[in-house]
Amino acid sequence: MAVGEPRRVGYLYALPALLVYVAFLLFPLLHSGWLSLFAWDGLSLGTWAGLSNYASLFSEEGAAAAFGHVGVLILFFSVLPVCIGLVLATALHRVRIRGLPFFRTVLFLPQVIAMVVVAVAWQRIFAPDGALNFVLGTEGKAWLGDSATALLSVGIVGTWVQTGLAMVLFLGGIGKVSADLFDAARLDGAGPAGEFRAVILPALRGEIGVALTLTVIAALRTFDLVYMMTPLGGPGGSTTVPAYEIYQRAFHTGQVGSAAAIGVVITVLAFLVTYVITRVAGRERA
Amino acid sequence: MTVSRFERVGTYLVLGVFTIFALYPMLSILFTALRSEVSGQGGLHWENFGKAWTEARFGSYLFSSLIVSVSVVAITVVLSILAAYAFGTMHFRGRDALFYLMLLGLTVPSEAVVVPLYYDLRDLGLTDTYASLILPQVAQSIAFGAFWMRTYFRSTSRGVVEAARLDGAGHWQTLWRVLVPMGRPALVTLIVLVFMWTWNEFLLARVMITSEALRTAPLGLQFFSGRSDTSVPLLAAASVLVALPVVVLYLFLQRHFIRGMVDGAVKG
């Protein structure tokens, strides 16, 4: 469709933004692809490595572990918040909630707080003398210092951050569903489960897609949280993630090419996730 | 719809549990920040904030964050308005291709470009400067800005633009005297989101900044928390200081935060 009138001056308007964008985002991205083809320590002259940096990501244990940990984090950052959000939205929509703006403000609040601050707050909770041990009666357990529980603990923080987002999205979406649909479902004799399947799930498809995309990408990009909460990749390297590997390899262990390759892989994954979820959820392009 | 009292009570109970879950970590850090550094001493110790500000140098870190955030917001907003005006209201060859090229930037994770950025900026002698934080973050925000403002420009009625034209306004005046003032809500959303992203950014500062004088607030907090002699109440007070500006902004403009993060989320 031909929106707007023909104007060459459009190039001039778009130019400054394009220049900054190309110089500081697009060019670095391509440069990352280029660097990923070399074995380079960041100081001396690099040597051509072809695709071997990518090949070793599959064979080498450290990289595989980092991507495996992201898989676990996705459960906590995405699956759990979306499930909780759906259950709650279903349970809550029948009652006209007084003070809904208050609840929305509070539930969404974790989304706007710097991750480094979130990390400090939760470090205290997971500490041997922290609130979690007090509640569970497990005296002196260092949740973040134990390789069996460190990743789990980071995951719980992810659930804390993302659940509010899912709930706000779903409560908003459910508010737009016409009451007639619920009445019709009830007339057909649908119980809560039937109502959920027949009305709520189809109505919230778009919102579920948005929530999944946002949270899966947040899990994929996790850095601040693990870097702050579990220094040096956690006990026994149990909380390494791709972004942490990028940082560590590029700036500490002199494997710039390998770091760049991981960067390319998470970029491709981010695009894939966005594409697939948008397709499945069938959301219209804005 | 009639709902039983049982259901009503249950609803608030569930909401209450999740509200406590959301609030507890934040309230606990706030209370910790007011505790005495000497254990066992009671009372509220507001001086912790003063100590974090001066002795722990968070005044300086917050100032760095302010410079970087305000610069990123200002540049991003102006460049996004200009580009979105072209993409949304004008017609020129390659317009859509250029726009989709910019849309790509919405999905590129900043973690993926931080390594080449470091070496590129080092070659330019720009590492360890505010510019090394500002320019890359403008580039990352501009994709969203151009997308967000284009949606606004396309939603404004052509009649408004034509009326301005009849009054003798050129494209420049039409943009700044008519469209931008009308687009205040969309602009406020853009401003608060870019401010929040920039204020909370950590990895880029970790990689680029080595001088203590240039440390941003999140980077300062990471160093402070890593020191063995840091007392828990001071660390908590510093954390509150780091989080406070965005939280205050959020409390006043929460609709903008939620709308921007939710509506602007998946852009196709």
UniProtKB/TrEMBL annotation, chain A:
CDD domains: TM_PBP2 (cd06261). InterPro entries: MetI-like, MetI-like_sf, UgpAE/MalFG_permease. It is a multi-pass membrane protein. Signal peptide: none annotated. Pfam families: BPD_transp_1. Its main location: membrane. Residues 67-277 form the ABC transmembrane type-1 domain. It is found in: Cell membrane. Keywords: Cell membrane, Membrane, Transmembrane, Transmembrane helix, Transport. This is Binding-protein-dependent transport systems inner membrane component.
UniProtKB/TrEMBL annotation, chain B:
Residues 62-253 form the ABC transmembrane type-1 domain. Belongs to the binding-protein-dependent transport system permease family. PROSITE patterns: ABC_TM1. It is a multi-pass membrane protein. This is Binding-protein-dependent transport systems inner membrane component. The chain crosses the membrane at residues 12-34, 61-85, 97-119, 131-153, 174-199, 232-253. SUPFAM superfamilies: MetI-like. Keywords: Cell membrane, Membrane, Transmembrane, Transmembrane helix, Transport. It is found in: Cell membrane. Its main location: membrane. InterPro entries: MetI-like, MetI-like_sf.
